[in-house]
Structure prediction request, 359 residues.
Amino acid sequence: MIYYIIFLLLYPLLFILSFFRKKPTNNLVIQTAKIGDYVNTSIMFEPLNKSDVVIDKVNIVFSQYDSRINRVLIINEYKKNIISKMQLAFKIFFNNYQNVYIVMPNSYNLFLGQMSFSNNKTTLSTYTDKWYTKILTLRMKKIKHSVNDLTLDSYLKLINPNFTHKNFIKTIQKPIIKSDYKFISTSTFNIGVSLTAANKLKTIDIQTWIDIFNILDTFECNIYIFGLENENSLYKNLINSITIKNLKIISLLGNIDLKYLPYEISKMNLYISSDTGNSYIADAMKVPTINFAGPCFWMEQRPVLKESLIIKSNACCVPYSSVFKTEHQEKCNDIFTIYNKQKKDIEAFITKIYKDFQF
Prediction:
């Protein structure tokens, strides 16, 4: 609410200054969420062609190499105090954007949208809307989004209500930055794995990983563990818990620069994880995925490649974690536990992909 009061107080000044701005050009996309949401937002960059972005610092390595992005504004650099927040707001105002799309509609981002003084401001109306959201979104076009709506479709409808994810290709970078790493062999059947999403709620339990690796052990393949160095304790726990005969497991924890991550994941023939940023990178790189929905509303956000297998949770309390509402506490146990039918589905899915691989 305080942001809208500030905007109202500044409105007369902004109105006068607006006559002295340059002609409106370019698009602005405001998406300040983390990697997975940024990957899915990247589908917007295709129809927009050229855009400026307001993003979280973790995504700078993707955006700064993207030919579809002109200017990158890092939200973290402006959130220290009210003065720095206003600096970003006025920077956006003077850039005079023709179109502004607020993909992450929190109060500060909506304030930035208002401060753009653009005639075409569009945002999402979600299940997290508060009473003051109606005020912060005055004179904005709103696209209704629910947990039953695929985020890719909702993001594209910000641009055109007739767009769907089937019309455009999701690409995290354009072009993809290639590395000269020699970590990954391309002559073997490669399976990428993320043990966690840096979120306890999305961390698959050890018993489920044992069940998964028992299935994988029936195939001749290399397993690559992707993630951060601080996930080594999870990795060691896994290694100490499984018994395998045929698998070669290679840890890449902490070894891949983020800017090269899409390229390295593209070398996988399959990617297995819960709802992680890496699973969406794999999906964007046309790598088949097995995605464990766990606590998440799988209809809302999931890999969409044709070769995708969504493993829904058998727990009675799910789903309860949505894209625009972060959960921090477990609602029940065993949300990733899989039963015989799902194990057979997983094995059949891998078998089909495995048969298509040319050794």
